[in-house]
Amino acid sequence: SAVISQKPSRDICQRGTSLTIQCQVDSQVTMMFWYRQQPGQSLTLIATANQGSEATYESGFVIDKFPISRPNLTFSTLTVSNMSPEDSSIYLCSVEAFSGRAIETQYFGPGTRLLVL
Amino acid sequence: TQLLEQSPQFLSIQEGENLTVYCNSSSVFSSLQWYRQEPGEGPVLLVTVVTGGEVKKLKRLTFQFGDARKDSSLHITAAQPGDTGLYLCAGAITGTASKLTFGTGTRLQVTL
Questions:
Q1: A4-100 falls under which CATH superfamily?
Q2: Cis amide linkage into residue A8, ω under 30° from 0
Q3: Higher-scoring residue by pLDDT: A98, A105
C-alpha cells in the first residue's frame, strides 16, 4: 500500500482565480492519477500524471484548465485554472501500488474539497 | 458513458440487517476493486478480485466476482453503523492497464 497526503485539505476560492493542489506519496510510484468527485457523485478520472512527460487527459478535460506537474516519482500537482462554481468538487489524487499477490490497485489520498463562489 | 452500474443507489437499513450491493457492466474487467468512502475522506480499498468466480471474505463482508468478470457483488452480514458510507466498485478494463472505471456508487446508511 501507499500513504498519500494532499494539500490543501479544503479551500474556498473566488471565480476566475486558480488553485494548485499538491499530492505527496511516501514511496516512489510509477502511476499517479487525478480524479474529480462532484457532490453526491462517483469518481471521474481527470488525467494520468506521467513522470517526465506531459499528463494524459481523459475526454472532457484539457491541459489549459487542469495543468498537471509530475517532477518526480513521489509528487504531483493539479491546478484548477480560471475557476467557476461548476468546479466545486472534491479533487482526489491516487497512486498505483501492489497489494497482496502482486495485484496492481489504486490507493487514494484524503481529497481536497474545493468550493468556488 | 458510465460503464459500471451499481444498485441500489441508496440503502437505509437498521443495525443487524443483511444487504447486497451489485455492480454490473457489459465490459470484461481484468480486476475489480471495492472501496468505501466516508464523509470527508478519500476512498479506502476494501478488496481486489481478479479471478472469475472468486469469492473473498473480509469479516462480515463477502465479495464475489462474476464468472465472466463483468459483474460483482458485495454482501454485508449483520450491518453495523460503522458500515455507513459510500461503496464504490471500480474495474480495470482488460487491455488498458491501470486505468480504473468507477461505478455509480451505493450510499449505505445503517441506523441503530
A1: Immunoglobulins (2.60.40.10)
A2: yes
A3: A105
